[in-house]
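Propose amino acids for all 76 sites.
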């Protein structure tokens, strides 16, 4: 993490090597969008259809890294 523009940022590296930094508001938004997407069977199906099983697992991993617990994300 680093301090920039008045708030802590999280930096992470994509599999392809890009670096991304998220400020607090961006992290809150990403967390909520992922949480809502994984909260319903139709949202989980949509993620799997659009991004495949790997993308679905990445979404779950991101939420786990942000300490968001999902009930049972594998249930579709």
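Proposal:
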């Amino acid at each position: 993490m680093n301090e920039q523009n008045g708030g802590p940022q999280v930096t992470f590296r994509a599999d392809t090597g890009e670096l991304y930094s998220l400020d607090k508001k961006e992290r809150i938004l990403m967390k909520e969008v992922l949480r809502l997407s994984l909260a319903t069977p139709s949202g989980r199906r949509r993620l799997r259809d659009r991004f495949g099983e790997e993308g679905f697992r990445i979404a779950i991993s991101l939420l786990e890294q942000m300490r968001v617990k999902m009930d049972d994300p594998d249930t579709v």
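The longest strand covers residues 7-13. The chain has one domain: 23-76.
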